[in-house]
Structure formats: C-alpha cells, structure tokens
UniProtKB/TrEMBL annotation:
It comes from the Eukaryota. GO terms for cellular component: membrane. Residues 1-20 form the signal peptide. Coiled coil: none annotated. This is Uncharacterized protein. Keywords: Membrane, Signal, Transmembrane, Transmembrane helix. It comes from Quercus lobata (Valley oak). The chain crosses the membrane at residues 214-242.
C-alpha cells in the first residue's frame, strides 16, 4: 500500500502538466483505488449486495470510491443498479466466477488531471467502474474480470447535467478505454449515456471559438516556423542554381563566338588567332602630293652610305603618299 500511495502522489503531480489521458498514470490510480476499496471490504466483513464507501487519504478527498460484492446469478437475473451506473440483466463475467466485486469511481476535481480530450471540455466528473473476482477478498492479488452484456448497453445517468437549450445537441458521451483510446458518441437522451464495457466515462462539449482559434494558432505557429525556414533555404538554392546556369550559358556563347586555329609550337599544340591590324586612313586619301627635294650630292652620299634613294620613296609609299615628285636641289633652288 505504501508504494502504491507514493506512486499515486507522483503521478498526480506529473499529470497536472499533461493534457490528455495517460495510461500509466490512470493504471496507477486504478490500482490504488482498487486497493483502498478492497481493504474497506475486508474491514467491514461485507454482506453480499451491500455497497460500502472506501476510506481514502486526504490527497484523494475529492474522489469517491465504493465497492459492492454480488453473486454471478444475481447479476445475470437482475443486473447491478447500485449507483449512477446501471448494468443490465443477462450480464455475466468472463471468466465465470461465483462472486464478483464491482468498484465504482467518481474522480471529482481530479478528473481533468487524469483524463481529457483535445478539442473538448469535460462538463461532468469522470466516473467509472471495474469488476474483480471476489471469491477471496483477502488475497493480495485480485484478478480483474471482463463483462459480457449480450449486446445490451450499460446506462450511466449524469444527474448533475441540466438542460441548457442548444448545448444538448453539442454534448458528447466520452468513453476512455484502458488502452488509452477515446470513443465519442451522441447523447440520445438528456443526461444519459450508453456504453458497452467497463471503464471510465464523462460528458464533454466542443471548445468555444476563442479557445479553438488559440489552439489552431499554436499549431500553425509550431508548424509554420519549419515551413518558413524550408522555403527560405529552397529560395537560396534556386537563386544559386539560376546564377550558375546563367554563367554557363554566357561561357558557352563566348566559346561559340570565338573560333581559334591550332598551331604546333614545339611539341605542343596551342590555339592561335590571326593578327588583324586596322590600317590608318588619311584625309583626302589618294589626292595628297608631296614634293621631295634632295641635293645632288645626297645621291652620291646615299650610294656611299648604303642608304639608297629608293628607301625614301618606299617610306613615302608606306604612308599612302602615292603622288611623289622628286626634284634635285643644288642649294640655290630646284633644278
């Protein structure tokens, strides 16, 4: 009992930070409540068909737990109607036992600590029941049983609910299964829910618009940050790829415009381009005339120096002076 109580306290504090149904915490709570219930049953030397309220520690003062022991043939003939939970007749335990114990729970203010459903708000405390083998209630290990109702529903009367107009159509019966899953069903009759098996149950309504929008904003913000980062990275990569392709196109175009011949230089083959010079163009080309005079002695000197007179004419021809007239000069005038 000591270890179960410590574990229950730890799970109670941990569940206060979790919104939803935690199977481990719920199982710990069920084990503790079942132990308190059976200790109460042993202490009272119970009578069959009598409902006993369990004594709980102060940290579970808002929770109500009760236990009743019934015969299997009584459950089959009359069912069990000892609380707000009504088990129909023609119900039997699986496996079959001579006597069984039903533990009823009402979690009260602790309901939201252990159970919850995203998008819904619980408007009633979580109630539930579990069935155990009561052949020997003094055993430390008590076997849990299953129920077969032959297809008949188990009826739960949430008497704390009051009619409130349009809210009736929004109410949903919620069943918290042992494996952590949750089932929703419509409330066909105001204040009453129908279920098929043992477990924990409540009534919930959808969250209001502001709370729903706040929830969507949080989800959108969490999912939007990675999306923005991914889009930014994709944009940078795309820009880099486009820039690389543009450079490649420019290089390819430059290679196609420039055609170089190949020449052998020694033992290496290298590209070679033809040299093109722009010829000088003079004003009034072809109409220019120059008069070139020379002393008669210059001819003899040119011959002696090896610089013939033809060189002067060649120089003038190269400068596009096509009309050249040469006159000998004797120092006093043109001869």
């Amino acid at each position: 009992m000591g270890w179960n109580l410590i574990l229950l306290i730890l799970t109670l504090y941990s569940c206060s930070f979790v919104n939803g149904s935690d199977s481990f915490a719920n199982d710990s709570l069920d084990a503790s409540l079942q132990e308190f219930a059976f200790k109460t049953l042993v202490r009272h030397r119970p009578l069959t068909g009598a409902l006993y309220k369990a004594v709980l520690p102060t940290n579970l003062s808002s929770t109500e737990v009760s236990i009743v022991r019934v015969r299997s043939n009584t459950l089959w003939n009359k069912g069990a109607n000892f609380s707000i939970i009504h088990i129909p007749s023609r119900t039997m335990s699986v496996p079959h036992v001579k006597r069984l114990a039903i533990v009823y729970q009402n979690l009260g203010n602790l309901s939201s600590h252990y159970y919850g459903m995203p998008g819904y708000s619980l408007i009633t405390p979580v109630v539930g029941f579990m069935v155990f083998d009561a052949s020997n209630v003094s055993d430390k290990s008590v076997r849990k049983l299953n129920l077969s109702t032959m297809g008949k529903p188990i009826l739960i009367n949430f008497s704390s609910l009051t009619p409130s107009g349009d809210m009736i159509s929004k109410r949903r019966c919620i069943a918290f299964n042992g494996n952590g899953t949750v089932n929703l069903s419509e409330m066909k009759l105001s204040g009453f829910c129908h279920f098929r098996d043992q477990g924990h149950f409540s009534v919930g309504v959808p969250l209001e618009g502001k709370q729903s929008r706040w929830y969507l904003w949080v989800v959108g913000f969490v999912l939007g940050i990675p999306g923005i980062v991914l889009m930014g990275y994709a944009g940078m990569v795309s820009a880099r790829i486009l820039k690389t392709k543009k450079i490649q196109v420019m290089e390819r175009q430059a290679d196609e415009d420039l055609i170089l011949e190949s020449r052998w230089v020694g033992s290496s083959k290298m590209p070679s381009a033809a040299v093109t010079r722009t010829q000088p163009v003079l004003e009034n080309e072809g109409n220019n005339m120059i008069i070139y005079t020379f002393k008669s002695k210059s001819t003899e000197q040119s011959k002696k120096s090896g610089f013939p007179l033809a060189v002067h004419f060649a120089t003038l021809k190269a400068l596009k002076y096509n009309n050249v007239i040469c006159y000998p000069y004797n120092g006093q005038g043109i001869v």
